[in-house]
Amino acid sequence: MNGVCQNSVYFFVDDSGVLNKNSPCKDFIYAGYSFLSKTKMEDAKRRYRNMVHIVKNATHIDGEIKASKLEKKYKNKLFKVFKYEQSFSVAVDISKVYDHILGSKNSIHRYKDYVLKRIIKSEILNYINKNIIDAKDDLKIHIYLDEQATATNGVYTLKESIYEELAEGISNYDYGTFHDPVMEGKVIVSVEYCDSSMNYLIQSADILANRIENSYYFGDQSLRKIPNHLCLNMP
């Protein structure tokens, strides 16, 4: 393949909630969208940007639109722009997370990276199972995150741990097991932390993450009945 990846997946991710036992919502959420080409990604960005302008004109909001400060009807308008795009979410039941994980900022950051890795892997497997991606092909994964949403202080960076999971496989020393790699071809992973005020697709992930968080907070499962949506629950 001459060292060139034949497939690319673009992930845009944001979070909602606080990974803390005292959080008013018992679930911490990561959610977002994935696109299989730059063309689809740019088309989606254009459509979302147009709706943002409509909502700003109606609400007179200056600056970035945040789901937490937006009326329900406007959140719905923004959500519907991407209703049929490929989306994903992971909900962490905070009450089931070990206290020692929540005991320091560094361990919380490492756990957040682990959660992100799990949902990225699940989304790639979803594409493989649907024969959209061939595990034997090369794959380039682009991950864009809100720069405020995560930080890594663990043994591995997020980028390295995702690569290891997908391309090399993971040994679980506690249980003496080995998880096979997902991809057989060459894997390249890039992670970029972005200013969400400058990135419409991360803003769209904020709207989705808020919707998923509300579905758990208010016990409204209908909010998670989304076409082309992959939902993961942890731990």
Automatic annotation (TrEMBL):
It holds the Pfam family DUF3800. This is DUF3800 domain-containing protein. It comes from the Bacteria. InterPro entries: DUF3800. It comes from Lentilactobacillus farraginis DSM 18382 = JCM 14108.
